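Incident log, structure service

09:12 report received: a user says their structure output differs between two submissions of the same chain.
09:20 pulled the input from the user's history:
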Amino acid sequence: MSKPLTDLPPKDLIDRYLQAVGFWLPRAQKQDILAEISEDLRSQFEDREAGLGRSLTESEVAEILKQRGRPVLVASQFMPQQRGLIGPALYPIYIFVLKIVALCYVVPWLLVWFGILLFHRTEAAAHLSGEWHSLGTLWTVVFTQFGIVTLVFAAIDRASVKSPCLSDWDPRKLPKIRVETSTKRCFSALAGLVFSVFGLLWVLAIPQYPFLLIGPAAYLVKGAPVWQTVYWAIVLLAIASIFEHLVILLRPQLTWFPPTFKVATLLLSAWIVNALLHTHTYLLPAVPEGIGLASAMNLAIQIASVVWAAGLLIALAINGWQAIREIRRSMQPAMPHLA
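09:34 re-ran on a clean worker, output below:
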């Protein structure tokens, strides 16, 4: 027997459907489009209930949503209409896959390439022609991947025209609503604050107790002068982390603050990495027995610094984009939540 709509969580199926549609919509028009779809659906539900003289069952609500269409197809109706190999039904998924390819392959490769030029300017000058050749190879791979993805989606688009999958789906199997409660946000910020305080205390104790950082190796090796250069910048990073979590805890509505502040701390981290990459000596032997260990640890730290530099460039790109998005969103007039 079908379960009455009133026995379900309020607006459960509708909100899950709108969430699925919104995933494929452009951010700038998302709220307006979802409000229009929501109003249209509620009008259909009210008309159906008025005709039946009773509340709709879960199956009847699901049937209306099913007739409305798959979320990706509904979203494609509000996209700019284009002519080409990819039809409007698959176009949002096609763009989504291209973004994943760019984010996971092209962007990291370019950031690492620019990082090499930035942090190793002298070496890059001697091998610049080789670097440009590798950049040309990158674009060859990029266009190849773009072509493969396009051809695959074009084939799927042609095959899906007569496919029953477009109409054979169940709205009740849509993902549940993703809700981040204020309690969860506060707990996360509080936990981050506690760990940041302990992190600051740990950093402050390291000069007197190097065992906390390198363990028993502290009896065989000691820090090189480069750490005196970057130490207080590292302390400042620890203090900044405390400040960041305090602001998030006390002003959770400032959604633009975390990514914007993160960009500033990443820039400070980049200065630290730059200092580390301009030396090859991070540890010195404290006793003759520590010469081999210092050499091995210096190599490990140098490799880790290069990896850290690449990660920082990627993090700067991601957080910079998020900061711009959140700042622009905060400057827009508030949109009313869907009822």
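09:41 both user submissions now match this output. Likely a transient worker issue. Closing.
09:42 reviewer note: DSSP finds twelve helices and two strands in the chain. Strands lie at 221-223, 283-285.
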